[in-house]
Amino acid sequence: MTDSRQPTLEEVARLAGVGRGTASRVVNGSEHVSPHTRDAVERAVRELGYVPNQAARALRTRRTDTVALVIAEDEERVFAEPFFAGLVRGISRAVDATSRRLVLSMVPDESHLDRLGQFLTPQHVDGVMVVSMHDALSLPESPDLPIVHVGRPRDAGACYVDVDNLGGARQAVDHIIGRGRQRIACITGPQDLASGRDRLEGYREALAAAGLPFEERLVEAGDFSDASGVRGTAALVERCPDLDAIFAANDVMALGAMRELARRGLRVPEDVAVVGFDGSPAAAASTPVLTTVHQPLAELGTTAVEVLAHRIDDPGAEVRSVVLPAELRAGESA
Amino acid sequence: MTDSRQPTLEEVARLAGVGRGTASRVVNGSEHVSPHTRDAVERAVRELGYVPNQAARALRTRRTDTVALVIAEDEERVFAEPFFAGLVRGISRAVDATSRRLVLSMVPDESHLDRLGQFLTPQHVDGVMVVSMHDALSLPESPDLPIVHVGRPRDAGACYVDVDNLGGARQAVDHIIGRGRQRIACITGPQDLASGRDRLEGYREALAAAGLPFEERLVEAGDFSDASGVRGTAALVERCPDLDAIFAANDVMALGAMRELARRGLRVPEDVAVVGFDGSPAAAASTPVLTTVHQPLAELGTTAVEVLAHRIDDPGAEVRSVVLPAELRAGESA
DNA sequence: TTGTAGGCGTTATCAG
DNA sequence: CTGATAACGCCTACAA
């Protein structure tokens, strides 16, 4: 009873009483086919459980209907950083809504770049999305292969989608200033990352715009990790006991900061207001007193997929990057 | 200068001054080719930067050199549960060492099963690894497609790799008994999961072997989440103030238990010993007083890949499942 | 050991 | 609107 072999287009055509070409047209949704014929073919397709042979199609069309998401990070961190969960979810969903498939590649270290380079060719994928936490790692780009970076890359000419890190950070700091805070500290993100740099810059700009001085002693270097949030807070509080607010470049650090403040008997937000730049909505939800700048990760993913699709379907088009606005979400305010 | 198109085997053959067939044999590492010719072809391959066209090869050989890892879980949980990080890492590494590629698919809900079913065919992949947290979800299996389950599935005849949940749990409880504890409580895992059931069974067996009674009131149902660890502990302590140990079916719950115990002024391990079944080595490391049964996730992944490769390369072979031993890691003891 | 040729399942072109 | 008919790039008998 089981034929074991998948049915071919030839068999569909035969069963429908049409030629192979016509069957192909129906399967590919061509306009130029009579309703009657279309119907017959579609019935045959269903009856036989026909599914197009991907290999044959790819061989013929030189398209793979596959896009890659390259995460230039070790699995460990990929799973640890809430940032990736949201992003992958968004991208995954968006690609699902497409006729394309998504393959996920993590690149733990440079030794894997060769293998990856062989894979990232028009022969295997139609396009690539790259999210890298380090500016450093540059992967072997195949010409003729559309690439969209998630997060602004070092290469200024490259196509990317990103959240408005600068504007978001400025909003965050504006907000605390508006609540009457004057001595606002900052725990930065890694400075080899555009997001890290931009969020620090936003902090500066907000201070400047309000006529507040930028003070080195109110700034601590962090790396987006919980530990660095704790460490930075400890250092800041010891150095400037009179600070009345902390802007952390992401929520993970902000939460670390809140724990450390609590440990020292300082109350949030009464004594010290805290605002973070959001990597995950969950963090904000779990601590209503935390005001955060919401980073729309899912939307970022969706956008990345859209932009990539656009570049794939219309190779001649101009390269357009997209920057999404970041949105302030005030918790119990300070 | 750039040819833009990838070179074909034909061109390699021409440059090497041999026939297409011979070039193919060299590329595929056939024995029957003279060292001289082989050398010429290899040089041509390098010079042209030839890389075999996957589609053409797949079309011809009916093999894809691709294996799928299906995680029957929402992205959210996949990234939240430390279990998956270790597993994916192990599998990823193991596949990398192969000539095959890995594609990762998460299945948030049943609505995605159709799409997945279309993908999980010999036409797209050579084999599949499935890790599911629920017994319920059964994916549409394509005949002729080797499947290896990670974690014992409901279907008893299926091929799987797993950790010795029962033995591990028994070891854990044995260990606390050996340290003189008498009233040992258990926070179980979800009972619709083999791992959950087996670990509870191990707990029973250890008690029985030691002549200790199994008491319902010493058992609380958990679901592997931190919250359920906290909740279960609270319930247990209130119900049985005299308990002197807790066995939690995973580390996440064990850590939750420890927090709850601390909150109630109970000391670990002086007042109450805690031992967990380990999803992630990190948990054990972060709390030296926690004794855990180590679940070798990376090795589990490696084994899954090996078993799958075996089944792919030797389709006639008997289906053999593998159960890995679990290893006790004693923290500062009770 | 090596070359030649047929065909894997599709799509695209080109007549009808 | 439809049906033949070439490729797409590769592997693998088969013949030399």
UniProtKB/TrEMBL annotation, chains A, B:
Q: Name the UniProt key words of this record, in alphabetical order.
A: DNA-binding, Transcription, Transcription regulation
Q: Name one Pfam family in it.
A: Peripla_BP_3
MF terms from GO for this chain are:
DNA-binding transcription factor activity; transcription cis-regulatory region binding
Domain HTH lacI-type residue range list: 7-61
Q: What PROSITE patterns has UniProt attached to this entry?
A: HTH_LACI_1 (PS00356), HTH_LACI_2 (PS50932)
Supply the SMART domains for this chain.
HTH_LACI
For this protein, the record's InterPro entries field holds: HTH_LacI, LacI/GalR-like_sensor, Lambda_DNA-bd_dom_sf, Peripla_BP_I
Please give the name of this protein. Answer: Transcriptional regulator, LacI family
Q: Which organism does this record belong to? A: Aeromicrobium choanae
